[in-house]
Structures are given as structure tokens and as C-alpha cells.
Amino acid sequence: MGQKFQYDESGGTFFYFLLSFLALILIPVTILYWPRKKKIDPDEEKKQCHCPPCIIKREHLKNGESWQSTKQLCLKVGIIFSWAILIFLAYKVSQFDYEMANFDPYEILGISPGASQTEIRKSYRRLSLILHPDKDTGNEKAFMKLTKAYQALTDEEARRNWEKYGNPDGPGAMSFGIALPSWIVEKENSVWVLGLYALVFMVALPIVVGNWWSRSIKFTADQVLLDTTHMYYYYFHKTPHMVLKRVVMILAASFDFDRKHNKEIKERQSDNQEVPQLIKKLPNLNEKNKQRPFCYEYSVKARAIIHAHLSRIPLNPNTLEQDRRYILAKCPYLIQEQVNCVNQLILLSYARRIERILPIETIENCMKLSPMIVQALWEYKSPLLQLPHINDDNLKYFMSKKRQIKTLQQYAQLKGEDRRAILRSLSDDEYEDVMKVLGKMPFVDFQITVEVMDDENPTEVTASAIVTVTVNLIRKDMSTVFGDESVKEYDKIDENGINETKENEAGDGENEPASVKRPAWLKQKRGGGKKTKKSGRPANKSAFSNSIKNKVEDSPSVSRERLVKLKEDKRTKVEEESAEESADESEPDSNDKEDKSSEDESVTQRSNPEDDDQEWEKFRKLHEREKSLEGKSKSSHPVHCPYFPKDKQEYWWTYICDRKSRTLLTAPYFVTSLVDKETVNLKFTAPIWKGVYNFTVCLRSDSYIGFDQQKDFKLDVKEAPAEITEHPQWEFDDSEENVVEKDDQESEYTTDDDVPED
């Protein structure tokens, strides 16, 4: 049997190809991208704030979504048109299958299967006069098919071939069709086909890939220009101690606001008149700074707009107000990039890659700027101005001889009649808006637990151990404390909005010294320490060894493997001890029979239920650590921010620092999914010297002013054991020893004693 390759003459197989290709694309696209109506809450209008800024913001957002409705309409039309094409292709394929059905001579001649030879000849003559190519109604293909049908019923050999092979001509060559129509390879169409190939593969595809590559090398994951990131690194390294207004200046100088780097920025002729007039209204703008890029026009304009926003100065709605919306919508991503840059510089300073050490105030000033931008308030303004209908004139009612209300938490904890009496100047509708917004603000229960995970004694901290601080966040609405006179200890908040509750997790200590010292991981102890059994290394390793140890410990997969390994080792050890005891009991003397019952009782007593609880607690923590590795959503609770141009969700930063030495111990963890509860594990390396150390866990909001909290804890560091055999992967050769100056032998943490014990 021969083989034959040919193009699709009728185009049927090409329809199969198009149908399959279009179905594979159209079905998932329809499921994912078909526009769906949002579920509208019938009480949503009642829950919204009706202050003038909120109404204006909703109107702008609604107008901005007008193009979204047009986009959804075009998407619907495109999907429906594609489904129409798919249905047409399915119809063509069904017709093709019908035409290519099995050869049936009786059906072609229009006679019954039991017809005689006379009836067959009559039907053939009648149809041949109609279908013959010489006739006006002739059809060559139909006539050839009619002839084969007549031969199959009259010629014996043709009949046998039809019955055996389904074809009067006998077995044919195997045909492999190419699912492309034959006109593609025809000579007269070759120019058009080659032109289409060149347009797609030599023009369109390189342009698309080039645009994608050019954007990917210019922007970070948060769509921040890499040139902006480099500028942040330069200025934060140049000025380690960065004040807040300097941070605002660097933010305004971002290249994302420059027309040369970002084509979305609009430059108008009216800026030459409006920007100078706006600058006159803003004190301390420092517009005459000659340092580049702070002196560039785009930087001065962006800085003036940010200052006007923080001062709540209205702008021209047709010009500068549009620029304000674009700049402010970009600011949260730029501020997060600033925090990341400062954190990287701090890590480099700890690794001695750079000489200057950035204090904790720099990164905290970057964090302070985020709620200022969201709420349109300077840091020195009252947090009460975040409520609707509250202005500087209303603040005097919060300050009286009886009470001094300075924070939102203090106002919320008043009784209902007292809250209404303070805002008696507002109407009932305005006061209702105030209570709506205040009741939805966050009230976070902020608790910490300090332990050394994966160790047999998690409460004991030894030198250079990996300390894990578990931060438990429980978010509630502020309405839960309305009228509650009995405030819990963790609810006590000072006038600055900072939770001052202190938890001493590792013992008591004396007052800290006033001197500020460098963090302990930057230096190492000089020789003479205790050595391990395996390699003879000192118990207190070098700074490089400790940094590697920290990195390995921070790896969740390594920690999980170590935990499983420690559990297996412990279980094996218990089984061996039980086997030894059973072996001893298997051969008792006659005099020891009475002691057997007492030994059984001791073994029974040894299996304390508290051990099971500890194992369960370890398993629960392991499960939480695995869960923390999963992807986090960025949806928590909406923020009341009428002056911010976009909808905002509540996010938080949490980190550990040393207030005395003004250093950062852990990288700020950005919590983006605090809906009800959230657990964060912060890890750092314990000091290499034994003693009592004071650290602080901080929680900062990126959306509200006055909601920051901090908790102090003490760490009682014990001397490391003489033999360290649990971490063989941290053993290093003694080929190279770092030489440390004599002054570096002192501890760099701030402890309760000026000089740690040897």
C-alpha cells in the first residue's frame, strides 16, 4: 500500500486545526476574563462616609471607571464574536464529516438495497443525463461518484472491492493530509504568504519582545524605575541619618515623576505660572536647593504637590489636581521601595560592605511618610483630623479641664454621651459619619512570644542562638471598645499612640547604660574561647560564620528539616532508652519481682501528658511556618482616606530593633493580609556575650497615624555549651582568622551591665 502526502484541497482538515486551536484558547479566556458584575451590598450606601472629600473621591473614581465599562463592553463583543467563529467552524466540520461519510452506492443511485439490475440501469441512465459534465446541470465530481456506484453494483470485481475495501477501485494509497489549504503553496500567492510570515515573525514578534524586555529591565516588581532605586541607594548611603523632610525631598525626586523617564507624566505650559504661585504658599519647601536632581523642575513640582497634599491645600482641578492624583497613587510603592533600599544598606553595613551604619530613625522616617501621604497630614498634626468633618476648629473641644483627648483610641473608649458631647457642634448626620469611620478603624491586639525553636529547651537562650520572636496580631474594629471603661493592659496607649506595654520574657535587669554601642553581630570575640569537640573552633565563631549561620537559619526549608531531624533523634533516643529498660526488666531476679511494679509506675509517671502538649505545640508551630510560606493576599480592610486618590487597604510593618544602639535586628516584615489574625515569625541571632539585653518589637501602620505600637522584651543570654554538635553545617576551617582590634573585644549590644561577664 503506497503513501501519499498532499495539501487539503477542500479545506476540511484546516477547519479541524482552526477549531481545536480556537477552542483551546477561547474556553479558558472566557472563564477568566468574562466581565462579571460586582456583588452590590444593598446597605453599602449606608455604610459609606458622606463627608465632602469622600463624595468627591467617589465621583472621581466613578469617572475614572468609565473607560473600564467601555473596555468590558469591547471584551464581551470580542468573546462573543470568537464564539460565533467557533460555532461556524464546528458547523463546517460537521458538514465535512457528512460529505466524507462511507461510500454507499444504493444511496448515490437513489434505489433500495434489494433493487434489480434493470432498476439499477434505469436509475443510472436517468441520473447520468442530469449529472453528465456536458449537460448544463452537470457536475463532474458527482458524475464520477455516480459511475463508481453503478460499477460497484454491476461489475463483479468492483463489487468485491467495494464489499472488501469500501471502494470500487480497490485499496488506495494511504493519504496524509496537511491541515493547510492548497492555495498557500500556489505560485501566484507566494508573495502574499511570504509577506505575512515576514510581518509576523520579523516585525511584530521582535517589536513585542523588545518592548517587553525594555520594560522589564527598567522597572522593579512593583513597577518602580530602577533608576529611581539607584538614586535611593545613593542618597540614603550618602546621608545615613535622614530626617523626615529629607525623605519627602528624595521621594519627590523620583525619576518616575520625570517626563524623560516616564511618558505618562504630563507637562503643561500653565505649570510655569501655577507652580511658583503654589510654592509661595508652602513654607520650608527648600525649592532653592542646588543639588541635583532636587533642583530639577519636575522634582520641585512634585515636592510642592506633596507638601500641598500634606497641608490639604486645594489645587486647580484641571491641571495640578490631576498631577496630584497620579503622584500620590505612585507614592506607596515608592515608599516601600525606600524601605527596602534602607534595609539593604543596613544589612550591608552589618556585613562591613559599607562603612556608614544607618540608624533605625532613617527607615522609620520612611515608614512614617506612608500614613502621612494616605491621610494627607503632617506628622505633628493631631490624629483626630483623620475623622470626617473634624478640622482644626473642632480640636479645641477635645481638650478640656476634665480630660485631654489626643488619640483616636482615647476618644473611642469614652462613653457614648461623652463622645457626642465633645462633638456637639456637629449635626446628627455628621456625627454618624464620624462614628462610622471610627468604628471601622483598626484595633490590633499585639502580643509577642520569645523562644529558641528546634531546641530541647526553647525558653533558654544561649550565645549565638537563633531567637524566634512570634508576633501574634489580632485585628478588631474600633467599635469593640466603644464605651468600655475597663481597658486591658495591652489596650493602654499613650498620647503618642504607642503601646508601652513591656514584657520581660527572659528575666529582670537593671537600668540600661546611657552609652550607645554598636550591634553585636558586627564584631567577634578574639580567640581563647571554648572549642568544639569536632573541629576545635571557638564556641563564639567569627562574624562571617555567624552571618552564614543566620542566613541558613532564616531558610524555612532548612529549619523544617532540622526540626524533623531533631524530632527523629529525640524519638530514637527515647526508644533506645525504653529498649534498654525493657531488656533489664526481661531478666529479673527473684528478689527484684517486687521492684518491677514500682519501675512500671515510674515509667508511667515518666510519660507526662505535658510532653504530648509540647510535641503538639511544636507541630502547630511547624504548620504555621509552612503556612507562612504560602502566597499572601493583599486584601485586608479598606482605609478611610478621602484625600488619597485610590482605594487603599490596611498594611502593617513589624520588625525588631535595639533602641539603645539605634540598630535594626530584623528586616521589616510587610503584613498585607491582616483580616482577623496573623502570625509573623521574626528571627535574629542572639548576642555572642552572655548577659541581659533589651530589644523592642515594633508594629507600624502604613495607612493610619497614631496606630503604631511597640513592645519591649529582655533577653537573658546564657553561655554557649562547650560542645556544639547540632549544627555541623556551620563548621568552618581554621585556615583564616580575622584579626580584631583590642577595642572590638567589647560587646556591641546594649545590656543591663556596661561590660558583659566573661
Automatic annotation (TrEMBL):
Transport among keywords: yes
Highest taxon, organism lineage: Eukaryota
Location(s), subcellular: Endoplasmic reticulum membrane
Pfam families with a match to the protein in the record: DnaJ (PF00226), Sec63 (PF02889)
Membrane topology: Multi-pass membrane protein
J domain segment(s): 104-166
Region annotation Disordered: where it falls in the sequence: 493-616, 724-758
Biased composition (Basic residues): 523-536
SMART domains: DnaJ, Sec63
Transmembrane segments: 14-34, 73-91, 191-213
PANTHER family: SEC63 DOMAIN-CONTAINING, TRANSLOCATION PROTEIN SEC63 HOMOLOG
Name of the protein described by the UniProt record: J domain-containing protein
Species in which this protein is naturally found: Rhynchophorus ferrugineus
